[in-house]
Predict the 3D structure of the following.
Amino acid sequence: METQAQSLHDVWGAKIKELLTDLGDNLPDPYREHYTPENVEEVEHKPYPGFWPYTNGGYKLRLFVPVFYIIGTGYKVTQLGGKIDELDEAAHLHAEQIHGERTEQNENEFYETYDQYLQDVDVWIEIQVKLYNSDNYFSPHNGRECFRCDVYLELGDKNEALLQDYDTISEEKLTEAINNALNYLNQ
């Protein structure tokens, strides 16, 4: 009977999922409030008609955090360089155009308009840990099993990223990469 070699995802997937799931408790406040273990998803790595994967497995943690929530907590997302402050100012100007200066008499309507302006605006955060076989053409380290741990922050047209390549896979390197991702979010 012939045995089939385990894939990288079979070997490392559970550990990556565990590290990303555990990360949820250590996220900065506005992100932690919107985290659940269901935010950790498998990276597509199995081909199907019309889809050829460029990775050999992994997991990602994806969050959407409403901008009005971030503003309300006073948390500063320094990586987005003032974009949240610009939206805060634009929402105030919009409410002023409709209601005039905020007064005690129009305060409820003013803030309702302000909130509606920001209602569908989210900061998108994604941490991806992607695995690559040694023979994967898209591997950042051709000829070696390796992984990438990338962090993406997006708000409208403003995008920031921390991209990390690792030329070997080990529990120590995976933990280091996840900690670097957390440190990036805590800046």
Observations:
- Helices lie at 8-23, 29-32, 67-73, 83-99, 107-118, 171-185.
- The radius of gyration is 21 Å.
- Residues 83-99 form the longest helix (17 residues).
